[in-house]
Amino acid sequence: MRARDVEGEEDLGHQILHPCDNQLVTVYGDTIHRNDGRHLDGGVTDDKVWQRRYDRVVASPHPMYNPPKGGLGHRVVSTLAGEFRGVRERRWNSERALIFAACVLRKSPGVIRSRDIRRRVERRLQLWTDGHYDALVQDIVGEAMRGAGSGRGTADEDLIARKYNSMVLDGKLRAAVRFATEQGGGGVLLPTDSCTKTGRPVMEVLRSQHPDTRIPDFEDPHCIAFEHYDEVPVEIPTDCTPEDLETLALRMSGSAGPSSFDAVMLRNCLLRYGRASGELREELAAWVEWLSNESPPWAAYRALMSRRLVALDKQPGVRPVAIGEIWQRCIAKGNLVGSRAEAKGACGSIQLCAGLEAGIKGALHVMRLRAETNGSMQFRAGEIDDELWELEREEGEDPSWIAAAEEGLQGESEYGPEGLTLVDARNGFNELSRYAMLWTARHRWPKGARFAFNCYKHYARCIVRNPGAEPSILLSREGVTQGCPQSGILYGLGLLPLAEHLRRDDDPQQPANSTVLQPWYADDMAMMGACTRIVRVFQLLMEKGPSVGYFPEPQKLYHICPKAEEAEARAAFEAAGLQVNFCRGKRYVGGFVGSEAMLERWLDPKVKKWVAGVE
Question: Cis omega before residue 316 (within 30°)?
């Protein structure tokens, strides 16, 4: 029998309930609370005090020492385990547990000798044990403010080499390679910067990329959300053992979330401190089962769901990247140990982002096989995009393949020439209907649905740091929240009814070569087939997609086909009122589809960048 969340029930009483809320209540016993839950305390009397302390700490990054070797390090890790245990036992909320490490282990400028580090950590651990929390918070916040700069810096080759070496020695191999090969990119934008595409303030762009909750309208004839199921599957309890956490610890990677605790630090704490590490593994395993099988009060783990939001320069444009707490990512992966296979089976080959082995390679292979079988997409030697050959051609001369292209069409079917159309959706993961996603997950992923619901039953806070100033806060109200290992699976499940609907509506009575091939990888959809059939499927996508939070952008459609087939393909799209971009090749989910000449142009700059990184 699942314990009642009385405070949550009272909070829901202040919210207008829509039919979709009632539907979720029937399958979860609760629905989405359209607030961030900061007004809830979970029965902890000093919760507001700890929220203020937490807010001050997470406003700045805090580089940390690893817990020292020997007895002191064991005490630090054991105390850390005790802090998380206290949350489960409802003595305090997760804000306290998450700031412990920064308060005790934060680095101090000039303190680099092992003996000095030990003395500093020991004294700070004693202050924590004695209850001097405000003094510790004030000290580390002061150090962070004194060390705050502009948030940017220029790096010469020597500095890049030293940082690369340091990251390798810390075990951050993937991050080190990315750092070495991505120099010269746009980097991180501050909230006060301007978007390199629109000129708008970055903070304004970030707000526009986090939409408000959309309530599914059951009376809309185009609504396919909350699809019918004959029965609700029984929830199977999730089991997690300390051994599972030990295995996961070896594979954990990634940057630090709001609390500044990163994957390398977590791995060390879970593996290198003997009995204390075992104690921490047992506690995290208990957390996996608590969030997977129960309905804990949101206030208990509210801070665990917060994200550190970073704005990356797309050159041009802004890409929001949310980095979740490493603790939440570890717990989520603990849930996936027992539930991933079920999610993978539910998505199958329809949605490849759930982890189907070799799914991306399979999608690329089946498209190439389709082209070979039907004799379509046969590019002539040297074919490149129109704007490229027009720019590069000699005065008054056209490439030889242009004349050849005028000789006639290739790979033509009853419904016109075949090609590949790539679909781009607005704002991707942030637009998915959260209501529809949780409904589908409950029926198709019963082993992971309770954990997912616990993560999304309130709005998560996204913290945007501003060096030397107060951070800005955004709420994740819709879509899947970035920074969680389950986000890809949940996004795939959320779009599964749409993908299935489009496949059913592609006429099965027509010959096989007229059926549109529709591989999906998260929000990346491709359609391969005859142009008139592609147009029909895309029109259905425009009609049905918004009801589940998928908003295709027609102006960003790219159709890949040989030049000889472009005129007829263009006519098919324009007849439906679609202005499509035509090209001879384009990147697709990590691979490339198109002519050999365009493939070479795509690969060449990447090879040069890799070579520069090695040098």
Answer: yes
Other beta carbons less than 10 A from residue 482's beta carbon? 19
pLDDT in tens, 126-150: 999 999 999 999 999 999 998 876 4
Phi, psi at 471, each rounded to 5°: -75, 160
List alpha helices for 170-273, DSSP H.
Answer: 173-181, 202-208, 242-251, 263-271
Give the C-alpha distances (Å, rounded to integers) separating 479 from 299, 356, 432: 21, 22, 4
- Integer Cα distance of 243 and 460 in angstroms: 30
Q: Which of 288, 311, 120 is nearest to 201 (CA)?
A: 311
Residue at 302: amino acid letter = R
Give yes or no for a contact between 444 and 496, defined as CB atoms under 8 angstroms apart: yes
Contact between 85 and 139 under an 8 Å Cβ cutoff? The reply is: no
Contact 429, 521 (CB under 8 A): no
Tell me how far apart the alpha carbons of residues 406 and 70 are, in angstroms, rounded to a whole number.
78
CB burial string 78-105: b at 16+ within 10 A, e below: bbbbbbbbebbeeebbbbbbbbbbbbbb
Q: Is the pLDDT of residue 369 over 50?
A: yes
Q: What gap in Å lies between CA 388 and CA 393, rounded to an integer? A: 8
